[in-house]
Amino acid sequence: MNPIRILLTLRFADAQIERVRAVSPRLVVAQKSVKEGADFSDTSALFDGDEEIFYGMIPPRDRARAPRLNWVQLHSAGINHLLASHHPILQSDIRLTTASGIHAVPIGEFAVALMLALARKIPLATRQQDRAEWPHDKWRLFLGTELRGKALGVVGYGSIGRETARIAKHGFGMRVLALSRSGEKRDRGYHEAGVGDPEGALPDAWFTRPRLFDLLTQSDFVLIATPLTDETRNLIGERELGAMKPTAYLVNIARGGIVDETALARALKEKWIAGAGLDVFAQEPLPADSELWKLENALIAPHISGATAQYDDRAVELFCENLQRYLRGEELLNLVHRERGY
Predict the structure, then answer these.
(1) Which pTM value belongs to this model?
(2) What are the structural domains, with CATH classification, of the chain?
(3) pLDDT tens across 269-326, in order?
(4) Under a CB-based contact definition with an 8 Å cutoff, are residues 241 and 195 in contact?
(5) 90: which DSSP letter?
(6) Neighbours of 268 (CB within 10 A)
(7) I want to staple 156 with a disulfide (CB 3.0 to 4.6 A). Which of 28, 70, 198, 225 is the partner?
(8) 3-class state of residue 8 by DSSP
(9) Hey, which residues are catalytic here?
(10) How many CB atoms are located within 10 Å of the residue 171 CB?
């Protein structure tokens, strides 16, 4: 049988590359490592022309350099970077899959960390530590909120939302309110064993997009975990923030464009809501003159919620699962539906 040539442009460790090669003797794997961040530019020059599968962040823009390319596995959970650059692969018939599902554990844990930090006023403690201050009115100043018994509203019940819900439900006795665009309860994408809620058994209540306001009014914590599409851009604006409880917290670990940041800054300043934990922003890096930096009830992280040492191992396992499916002629996991934008 003819060999299947794979081009990797990320710097995987030797053991990870061998894991890919072990899937089948038909696979011929070449790694052409690029400098840190360079994989966000055009990778066309790295192709010899006989590659059938590509793994990386940015596919080749010049199809002539990759005439046999049949499948692109992205290292990212979304395709916003391809949409923003109007990448020609989106107009092609090349199969495109994402790494959705591998982020559930690290980002789910980070989402809970933001919730805990906001509820127990950890940012305030950190600021006082920086000033070496021991407040005299500490009991009033640090009067916090317990997670137990509170309602977590998950906007976008995908792999990350499901793992956050699992931790919240089993670890803190929280109630889970799940919003799904399609109303689908099962997770049909890639998921690790024992992670998340693949059958959709955890939520105490389910919502679809027309009932977003119902979820917001009932939630003590609102987690934004939906993809950024034309449909979800500025999904959370003044009306939605105004519908939340004044004691509620917003956490966004999805994409910055889903939340209207001008409206959010006003909501935080005027105390429409109690606080916000943000790992993603409409413009990154977040501009130095953004009001969000200055707000004491905003906790800012520089888009690092998925950054753990296990990321590449998880990415390789997903790739190997998809390679096996590819060789068997089965449908690939996390296949991008171009009309949806994810």
Answers:
(1) 0.94
(2) 4-102+309-328 (3.40.50.720), 104-300 (3.40.50.720)
(3) 999 999 999 999 999 999 999 999 999 999 999 999 999 999 999 999 999 999 999 9
(4) no
(5) G
(6) 21
(7) 225
(8) strand
(9) 255, 284, 303
(10) 11
